[in-house]
């Protein structure tokens, strides 16, 4: 059975579409786009071997220390440093976390139905492996979107889950999917209540570089494995999830050096108190670019748990459908047409791709997101943003007279993805500050997200 993960081979391009098709498995010839498969090099922080007091899920984890006999130099290299059975504070903390919370770890397998070949023979279906964890007493399991979808296809795929020491897996159903966040919520159909052990959720906004991390999952299918490292960065910006064109939307991620490999996707990243601070999702894998199979290089990424906490209620209420990232109600006004298997389609283009002569002709800035249409009643319309009149130019279309969004919350905007990155983590009532240019003049516009910004699509 192939190991599943959202392996990001640095030059790969994810071909995906919401509810249509997304490749996201390793070992099956499908490589997801400019994202790296979550996984990282487990590097035990040797500084933790000094007896710095740490908060632990059990009292015993903070009481272990070197016996006095171990501090004396005997000059005999054959003598152990401490009495047999004693543990360092860091070791005791890790063991305590594993004993208390690994029962909440879930091993996930997926299998798509076999399809007949040209001769009518049934070929083997695709299969994958991933991880997840319980988030409540109802048995809801949080994992990655790419773990529970077969190349982006949800219908027909069979999802099975099991916990530690459970020999026979049980089938699970999809409760909600959030492709743009690479998150999914599933629920086992016949899991004994006694086996449902939720892991407490932490606060990823309080993280600091250097904090201990414990990654749980099934690297390369080796179920219920654990690795340890530290938080390497708390504000790394990387493409996550799958947008309508297949590419990820730039979002905040936790970087860790805890060893993570294909099969760890969807598993929890815990802190030294045993609380979940992230969901393992990607890795940087230079070796994987050559072999096609991602492997830990010491740089792994996890989706901050606060992102998932903000989505949980929407996922629970999705009825198996799609939970979409917020929108403000604008459509792109610069399109280049391409002929595809589905006919002629318009691809949004950044203004920087437009020849300078044409930009000068229509009094447009060097870069930015040109608005083609503003939907009535949306946050963009309420804020006074304006679309333009579409005109055919060469092999595309350009909106003349529309506003151009050049920055959002202080960050440059060149594409719809840049714009989405500014508000993908926001909630109802939150606002985004835009710098808008029109007719050579610049103005500031504040757009406030309302209930219409948040959409849930029913299952296909």
UniProtKB/TrEMBL annotation:
One of its GO terms (biological process) is proteolysis. It comes from the Bacteria. The keyword Hydrolase applies. The keyword Ligase does not apply. Residues 334-440 form the PDZ domain. Residues 48-79 are annotated as: Disordered. Keywords: Hydrolase, Protease. GO terms for molecular function: serine-type endopeptidase activity. Signal peptide: none annotated. Residues 48-74 have a biased composition (Low complexity). This is PDZ domain-containing protein. It comes from Deinococcus psychrotolerans. The lineage of its organism: Bacteria, Thermotogati, Deinococcota, Deinococci, Deinococcales.
